[in-house]
Amino acid sequence: IQRRVHGGSEFVTACAQMAALNTVLVGFGNPLLDISANVPQDFLDKYEVKLNNAILAEEKHKGIYDDMAKHFEVQYIAGGATQNSIRVCQWMLNEPNACHFVGCVGKDEFGDILHNAASSDGVTVHYLRDAETPTGTCAVLIHDAERSMVAQIAAAEKYSETHLKSPEIWNEVIEKAGFYYIAAFFLTHSTNVAVTVGKHAAEANKVFALNLSAPFLAQFFGAQLASVLPYTDFVFCNESEAITFAECQGWETKEPVVIAGLIANLPKANEKRSRTVVVTQGPNPTIVAQKWGGYGVKTTLYDVEPLKKEQLVDTNGAGDAFVGGFLSRLVQDKSIDECVHAGQYASRVVIQRSGCTFPSSNEYHPIA
After folding, report:
1. Rounded (5°) CA angle 135-136-142
2. C-alpha 157: how far from chain center
3. What order do you get walking across the sheet with 53-56 strand by strand?
């Protein structure tokens, strides 16, 4: 195990062939419109919402979104885990048509707002529009600097392989892309789409990345994860997701460093590429494990630049932002050291702001 703060890297990705392609990175996920507002305690009480909690909307929350828009100054932010990472990647790259996103929204006003919000961040969106189901939303309720989230997936789970295989998506976006990224939330309803994209990536020797996303996915969607993991070249997770995944696999360890190596060694469809596993641990070192030819697994720890407590505003988007920053260097064929450095930078910027948002321009400086 090596520990690095900055410096050169022995990890080099073999992605130079993608430099000439128009479409660099495509993400697949649940597009949700985050509706954020500062609200009084009686509003939380009205909808029986507790602070510092994230829940799926129930019948009693049905009117919460319209109620927020009617009575408070709301901020509309293009959300959803994958879309957040794609937005951050686009921000870090600042190159036209670099990042694309595929998902499903409703044929409604919120769908239009979501499209405009993502597009304004420079992301090229390819939404399937479902006339029967409303756009997925997430109410972000802020009170005394604390927050609670109420999510309604809705149209996001209506994505279909028919849309994926349409000529305007498959021929013009998928086949021209060199990198694909999916958060495992998408596997709760569209595993077939993820497998199709993964197979294409493996057969064409392109890069396919997956985020384990949340502990419950390993617990309750293990079969779906197992069907997609063989196609992964990069796997992202945090320490709690890694530990839960290990428990579900029956591995007798709770050490993220060890678990990262075990995931790297799982069976792989495309043996031309070794698998790289990245485990974030908040302020603790980022773990990177990569199967290293016939020499086992090489693991490197990357220290995280500390922030003062008073600088922290919202850590909810930290993981999504890290992935976006990481991918922004990966698609440029940069070293893994540089990828991690960019990921940590993007995460550090986002957690000092409310929601997964960022300034109009970035001040990222590559490793000297």
Report:
1. 125
2. 17
3. 53-56, 146-152, 137-143, 32-38, 75-79
10's torsion region: left (phi>0), alpha (psi -120 to 50) or beta?
alpha
Beta strands across the sheet bearing 284-291: 2-4, 297-302, 284-291, 276-281, 234-238, 207-211, 179-183, 25-28, 99-106, 124-130
pLDDT along the chain (368 residues), means of 10: 53 38 83 90 94 81 91 89 96 92 96 92 96 93 80 94 97 96 95 98 98 92 98 97 97 97 97 96 96 87 93 84 97 96 97 88 89
Residue whose tokens read 């992301």: 123
- Residues with a known catalytic role: 320
Residue found by looking up tokens 């493996």 in the block? 202
Exposure on the CB side of residue 343, measured as CA atoms within 13 A: 30
Sign, CA torsion 160/163/169/174: positive
Q: What are phi and psi of 295, to 5 degrees?
A: -110, 20
Which among 284, 238, 285 is positioned nearest to 259, based on CA atoms? 238
